[in-house]
Each structure stands twice: as structure tokens, then as C-alpha cells.
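Input record (one chain):
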Amino acid sequence: MIGLRHHMWKTSVNRRAALLVAATVTSVTLGRGLGILAGSTSAIMLLHDALIGALLATLGGFILFRWVFWLAPIMAACAVVSALSPDHAMVSFSVCSGVALTVAAIFARYTHAPEPR
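The corresponding structure, as predicted from the sequence alone:
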């Protein structure tokens, strides 16, 4: 991470992406910590994680690239499955996270960020 610091903060797109990743990690970590303190089940925590992912993917579509919007319905579908079938929440979250990461990797591969100013 230290070695990437110079490149990570070089452009506004990189800064926004880094802040979005940090917001995601912080939100999920806080949500899980509070869930443990409240005695929530793992299915409920995964439901919250999926909703956080869908919300932040929507935000990412506005502040980064339009293709990030495609990640929101994937994570929203995970939330619906987790809510309707808590026994399958772990499988649903795993599959949806994998699909979302694959979609993001494919789109990111063909996305060209603007040159730094």
C-alpha cells in the first residue's frame, strides 16, 4: 500500500476510487462490529453488507464511471436472496460478490481514465 501511495493519489479518479473503497471497507467493518454487539445473525450481517455494497456501487456510478452502476443490482439481488432465504445468505453473498468483482474487472480493463492534469 505504501508503494502505491504516489500513484493512488495522482489523479482525481484514483482519489475518488480509493475513498470509495475506504468507505466500503469502513462501512462493512462498522456494520459487522455493531452487528456482533447487537447479537445479529450472520445472515442479517450479510444482508447489510449487500445493501452497503449496492448503495456504494450506486454512489460510485455517480462519482467514478457509469459502468459501476451495474454492480448495484447484483448486490441488491444478493440482499433480496439473503432476506428471503437466510439459510442461503452466505452462498448468495459469495456468488454475488464474485460476479460483481468479475464484472468490475472486465469493465475496468476497458476503461481509460483521463490523463492527470
